[in-house]
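Internal tracking record. Fields below are filled automatically when a chain is submitted to the structure queue. Please do not edit lines marked as system-generated. If the sequence contains nonstandard residues, flag them in the REMARKS field before resubmitting.
Queue: standard
Priority: normal
Entity type: single polypeptide chain
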Amino acid sequence: MNKKMLKNIEWGILISCVILLCIGFVALFSSTHDDEYEEFQKQILWTLISIPIMIIIVFIDYNLIAKISPFLYGIILISLVGVLFMEPINGATSWFKLSENVTIQPSEFAKVVLIIFLAYIIVKFQQRDKTEINKIWKLGVILLVAGVPMALIVLQPDYGTVMAFVVAVAFMLFAAGINKKYIISVILLVVILVPVLYFYVLPDHAKTRIDVFLNPELDSRGSGYNLLQSKLAIGSGRLLGMGVLMGNQTQLGYLYPKTTDFIFSVIGEEMGFIVAALVIVLYVIMITKAIYVAKTAKDDMRRIYCNRNSSEYLHSIW
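SYSTEM-GENERATED OUTPUT FOLLOWS
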């Protein structure tokens, strides 16, 4: 790795990622010790696999990746259709099950491929004039390209991932200079459609999740149970935490699933407020650094893609 490449690395993002990775390893170690550390070992394995892949990608010209993005987009669409025919896991057909312990979720790869492909399309549309994106048919193409994989993910169903896509696309369009009239129109449309979707479109289980999220006490022994236990775990950690492997909610099985959805509760209970707050601060640093990189990018492709990264960090905090 030459000096120029080292100079161009945004060290704030890299260091934040490493610290978050270390905190995550500790939390995962603690939350899987009653399961022979299976998830912890898998996480270490995938981390070791991902590091050389990351280094290789650093050396690949991003313009080359952008040029092959239409091909990658096609593969993603095929995989998103194929996964719909798989056996449901926890009520969703979101994974290809390769073995008893190995599954692949195409929607995670779709996040990267779709954004690169969208950035590629937007830059192509704006080659002659930055305002070209505001033409109805071109904006329609962009929304169609984004809408097809999102519709397939809704069918799984995986509404959380779809929301991540919506936020990412919104950030990209904003960074690309979309006309304010469209932004205002979308905001008004959302205000009108949200109540309609809630009362007439969303299935009962989705509405229940929203209701319980806003007020867990509505069903404290049912749908709100996990959320209440997670809040209890975080509160029990106080300033310095109860200690790794010492959290009551974590170790006695009251948090579920503690290795994924409620891993932050594990951090709060066993490592305390200081480490839990550090996690949030690190994400804020990553977001601000990503926005800075976007603002100082030398071309539109990097600028638009970096704004997408900012939205992804926001989704991670959520």
